Amino acid sequence: MNRLYIIGLCLLFAMAAPAQSETEYEKIALKKEKLLKSLDRNPVEVYPGAHSHVSISIALTYGILGSGDSAIYYLNHALDVCDIYPNDEACPENYNPNILGFYQLRNYTKSSGWKKFEDRVTTHYKNTYNPTNLSLAIKILKAGGADQSVRLFQMPADKNIINKTDSANLLFIKTVIVKQGFPGITQVGKPASDAAFLLVQHADNDIAFQKTVLKQMEKLLTTKDITPSNYAYLYDRIMVKEQGKQYYGTQFRNMSKGELFPINDKGNVDERRRKLGLSTLAEYLKSTGTF
């Protein structure tokens, strides 16, 4: 059993979950626990990333089932593995504070076990990225976690939950930006700055707000305080909505067919992308599996 199979199995369980009954969730949790026990008989080096990855997957399954104590136990177990094997390749994702905002775990945030988990994740983020505003960084990452989890792992699928989550996140990020501007990497760390950008991306019904953010991002771009590709994506997103064309070639009309929206001045698109430190358009399409 290789690592790719193990992680693929976990993802299969996670993605299949919306169609499962409570009884089937319980079966899935037991299968994952059995898998973890089999992994625990091997050093982490044999299946790098698998031990902690499976633990997180079990935690989310128990979160769906309403078993808060079990969910929190496996969350902390994943970090225990990372404390012993800090170079395990799954650890950066396991320590990502966006999990603190996951929809499946929302009912367990008052327990002492959760407080321990949150403190460990927050401390790791502080030590890794040293943001000037740690509190804001964690709030943004929690919002990003809620955004992701209702789309990828929501059980049962409910469009109303997604809409409510998006509305709450949009109000949150608008408040942040009105008060202090778009959060840059120095202020909140790269993961949180990227998460703030994703929240802005979902404000498609408020193009005036997106334009305001784009201007702020342009200033941060000159000081290298944002991820350059985020600027390109938002620029193109706005341009497509207003003109039906784009500038950097980031927006797909039909991704499954590799069909991009028309690119203005396409002959010079690679030069524009190069200035932002992006790959060529051909390389970008190849990386998305559409070319």
Structure description:
Helix content is 66%, strand content 2%. It is mainly α. It folds into 2 domains: 1-94, no CATH class; 97-226, no CATH class. A two-stranded antiparallel ribbon has the order 1-2. α1 (3-16) packs parallel to α3 (50-65), α2 packs antiparallel against α3 (50-65) and α7 (134-152) packs across α10. It is globular, with a radius of gyration of 20 Å. It starts with a helix and ends with a helix. The model is unreliable at 1-19 (pLDDT under 50).
Q: Keywords for this structure?
A:
mainly alpha; globular; disordered N terminus; single chain; 2% strand; 291 residues; 14 helices; 2 strands; 2 domains; two-stranded antiparallel ribbon
Q: Strand share of the residues?
A: under 5%
Number of domains: 2
- Radius of gyration using CA atoms only: 20 Å
* Low-confidence region ranges: 1-19
Largest beta sheet: what is the strand line-up?
1-2
What is the CA–CA distance across the termini?
32 Å
Beta strand count: 2
What is the makeup of the main sheet?
2 strands, antiparallel
* Overall form: globular
Share of helix among residues? 55-70%
Give the topology string: H per helix, E per strand: HHHHHHHHHHHHEEHH
Structural class: mainly alpha
Mean pLDDT, to the nearest integer, reads 84
Tally of separate helices: 14
